[in-house]
Amino acid sequence: MSAFTALAADLDLSKLPPPATVTVDFARDIQPILAKNCYSCHGAQRQKGELRWDVKALAMHGSEHGAVILPGHSADSLMIQLVAQVTPGRVMPAKGDPLTTEQIGLLRAWIDQARSGRTVWIRSVTWIAGTTGLSNQSPTPPRQR
Ligand code: HEC
User: Fold this and answer.
1) Nearest alpha carbon, ligand 1 atom 23
2) Which of 74, 90, 92, 110 has most ligand 1 atoms within 8 Å of CB, for mutation?
3) 0.70 cut: is pTM over it?
4) Protein residue with its CA nearest to atom 42 in ligand 1
5) Is 60 exposed, middle or buried (0-12, 13-18, 19+ CB in 10 A)?
6) 100 inside domain
7) Residue 34 banded pLDDT, cuts 50, 70, 90
């Protein structure tokens, strides 16, 4: 049994908000949540826990501990467990308001709908905080000021 499985077994996943029932659109439903609540610590400027949410490939790579999104399995995804606060003593975002039940439901639906090959990510684009424009470049270097 991996450390991850052992940890997950101790969690009460029945406390997770249910997934939203809408068909999730990444740009409309998900990116704004990540941009507002997560990019400040996991974006172009800073990568706390070695995790970056603004570039798909890097988000899928996960944190210093490995994958935090398991496509098709939102309840088992560390990302969801942390924002829903079922992990004792740990919560994301680490500062600021916790995510609402509705926001967590959307994140769950986003991960669950990645099942069966359906692409809920916007192809191989780079997500850039604060813009709706999505470019094709691979990871953007931190902005110079
Ligand atoms: C104020 C800074 C801050 C914000 C905002 C923030 N995080 Fe984090 N995050 C951290 C730090 C620091 C770590 C590494 C230490 C840790 O794991 O607690 C981390 C680690 C993580 C990890 C990896 C945990 C692990 O054990 O590998 C996940 C998943 C995560 N954050 C998700 C999120 C999500 C999703 C959001 C937005 C809803 C978010 N974080 C917002 C600071 C932040």
Assistant:
1) 63
2) 92
3) yes
4) 94
5) middle
6) yes
7) very high
pLDDT for the residue numbered 9? 55
pLDDT band at residue 97 under the 50/70/90 scheme: very high
Residue 137 CA, ligand 1 centroid: distance in Å: 25
Count of domains forming the chain: 1
- Residue 73 located in a structural domain: yes
Nearest to 31 by CA among 137, 129, 140: 129
pLDDT at 115: 61
Q: What are the structure tokens assigned to 130, written together?
A: 């604060």
Residue 137 lies in a domain: no
Question: If you ran DSSP here, which 8-state letter would residue 84 be given?
Answer: T
Domain of 41 in residue numbering reads as 3-117
Q: Residue 129 domain-assigned?
A: no
Residue 66's DSSP bridge partners are: 63
Helical H runs in 17-70? Answer: 31-37, 56-61
- Retrieve residue 109's tokens: 């639906």
What is the per-residue pLDDT across 35-78, written as a single tens digit (0 to 9) for each? 999 999 998 889 999 988 887 777 777 888 888 888 788 898 89
